Amino acid sequence: MNVLLDNLSLYGEGLLGTVELTVYASLLALALGFLMAAFRVAPVGSLRGFGTAWVTVLRNTPLTLLFFAVVLGLPRFGVVLPFQLFAVLALGCYTSAFICEALRSGINTVPVGQGEAARSLGMTFPQTLGEIVLPQAFRSVIPTIGSTLIALAKNSAIAGAFSVTELLGVYKPLNELGYSIVWTFVWIAVGYLIVTLTISALFTLLEKRFGVAR
Amino acid sequence: MAAEALIELRGVNKHYGTLHVLQDIDLTVGRGEVVVVIGPSGSGKSTLCRAINRLETIESGSIHLDGRPLPAEGRALAQLRADVGMVFQSFNLFAHKTVLANLMLAPMKVRKQRKEEAAQRARELLDRVGLASQADKYPAQLSGGQQQRVAIARALAMEPKALLFDEPTSALDPEMINEVLEVMRQLAREGMTMVVVTHEMGFARSAANRVVFMADGRIVEDRTPEDFFTAPRSERARDFLSKILKH
């Protein structure tokens, strides 16, 4: 029990690290996922190809492997960034593939006639997508995107193995100091619950506000 | 009718797989003309209507609007579509926007009208189709007939040169058909150029300048309603009319 109170600042730093990773990577994943979903339904063949390749590569690569690729690979091309930024890149790009597919499944639930009506009024592809299709698609994918971001929060634990301060990594110094391993992990789990339940509450709220009225 | 051509199709062909849905279609619609397209289902009449603003692509032939060829894709096509309104069988009002917002969206995004200007024009048009009191409702809260009248008003908000109607009353309850047809008759009287795919023979008789009868992807007859309904030339048209007019 004392493990938490004795090491409050250590746990706090870890939690803060996880929250930072989650927030930044989520924003990146949402932005990229949105862009890739737009690419995948675009009338231009090369954009569709790029979107498909992006999803195929990132969705089918183990996240740990992706971390290695970013942390060890990018410096070879002269891209040297703080480890936290590398972690955000890896997590964000990986999750963007799942966001893209969630959005695309939402786009497929919007009746074709909605897009046809927009096009028949002279709206361009970006206007049709942004004004008509995505707002309706978004409503039906709020729960799925919530789940994907919760998965992202938990996946951020991998960053601990790449010298990034985050919650799971807290166990290492505590273990060396001789604290009970069980209680150390119980409090780490509570930390993750705080993050994931917050995301879950946020998306419940979004769903109530924007969800499809039936 | 010697009016100048607004819509001109020459030698248009299209297949769906092995089905030759449009076969060497030649059709000219003059400015201010009302052309009603009728025919059995599967005859290609909806495809013809949708090809005019390129919701359906064609394989060969040419389509000219107001003397200009229909662009293939992109911004030029969007600009041309803005000038040709379309009314669909299933209304296709934007489900997440109010009636007023449905009318204002394209004028603001495409014509770059200011919000107040678009709103004022939208209210005038709603008034014209008898739905001024429904402006703040969502499409799902309206009856089918009301939704279709909103859809017509939405198309009119772009001040189109021509309107295409793809079976506008086919999804409606019988008692709602007339309220929609009445709006369309009024437009016809005001000189709007219209291409109407429909099964409403009464409308064809009373409002059309010409009746185009299609069967199996071809235009079989293209005549005045009076001539067509009283003395159809082709066996195919006689057969069709006898089936629909008998009961």
From TrEMBL, chain A:
It is a multi-pass membrane protein. InterPro entries: AA_ABC_transptr_permease_3TM, ArtM/GltK/GlnP/TcyL/YhdX-like, MetI-like, MetI-like_sf. Gene3D superfamilies: MetI-like. Belongs to the binding-protein-dependent transport system permease family. HisMQ subfamily. Keywords: Amino-acid transport, Cell membrane, Membrane, Transmembrane, Transmembrane helix, Transport. One of its GO terms (molecular function) is transmembrane transporter activity. Residues 15-203 form the ABC transmembrane type-1 domain. It is found in: Cell membrane. Its main location: membrane. Pfam families: BPD_transp_1. This is Amino acid ABC transporter permease. Signal peptide: none annotated. One of its GO terms (biological process) is amino acid transport. One of its GO terms (cellular component) is ATP-binding cassette (ABC) transporter complex. The chain crosses the membrane at residues 23-42, 54-74, 80-100, 141-162, 182-206. NCBIfam families: HEQRo_perm_3TM (TIGR01726).
From TrEMBL, chain B:
The keyword Transport applies. It is found in: Cell membrane. GO terms for molecular function: ATP binding; ATP hydrolysis activity; ATPase-coupled polar amino acid-transporter activity. InterPro entries: AAA+_ATPase, ABC_ATPase_HisP-typ, ABC_transporter-like_ATP-bd, ABC_transporter-like_CS, MetN_ABC_transporter-like, P-loop_NTPase. Its EC number is 7.4.2.1. It holds the Pfam family ABC_tran. Keywords: Amino-acid transport, ATP-binding, Cell membrane, Membrane, Nucleotide-binding, Transport. The keyword Phosphoprotein does not apply. Gene3D superfamilies: P-loop containing nucleotide triphosphate hydrolases (3.40.50.300). It catalyses: a polar amino acid(out) + ATP + H2O = a polar amino acid(in) + ADP + phosphate + H(+). It is a peripheral membrane protein. Residues 7-241 form the ABC transporter domain. SMART domains: AAA. GO terms for cellular component: plasma membrane. Belongs to the ABC transporter superfamily. This is ABC-type polar-amino-acid transporter. The lineage of its organism: Bacteria, Bacillati, Actinomycetota, Actinomycetes, Kitasatosporales.
